[in-house]
Amino acid sequence: MQQDSITLSYWNVQEAIKVYEYVQLLMKEEINGRILQQEDIGIVAPYSKQVEFIKNGLSLLGLDNIEVGSAEQYQGREKPVIIVSTVRSNRKTVGFLADARRLNVVLTRAQALTIIIGNPTNLMQDGTWYEFLKLIKANKAIAGKIFNCTKHVPTQSELIEIEPINGQNFS
Question: Taking every annotated instance into account, which residue ranges of this chain make up the domain DNA2/NAM7 helicase-like C-terminal (predicted)?
Fold first, then answer.
């Protein structure tokens, strides 16, 4: 994770690379019998520098029609797939992510699939994120490993059991 010395906004190169990998993988997948289009995917990041960094990388990949924005920019809007880049990876604070309203917006924008890219150990420092991670574990949602698509986006009943994240037991 890096911080801009002028704007103080953060960006995370490793997370951006993971976003690009997921986008390229998802562009080969189907939802409701049709291949995902760029317009079907939205990317949310809490920091303007990460939004800018991801947009630039997608542009270099020829993926200019994927919308990238902040939680505020997605308020009241939805996409079939939302990828969330949490950015913060230090062990001090979760920053903007501590705002429960932002988390609510981020987690309710996807119509079919939400992919969260981030450091769960860091996120668990915040009570709301801790409860969310505990919930996805209890519901056997996917976390803590690479999502391997198999020509469709899994439904709720198809989600696989996750392993403890960084040895953390959520019970």
Answer: 8-120
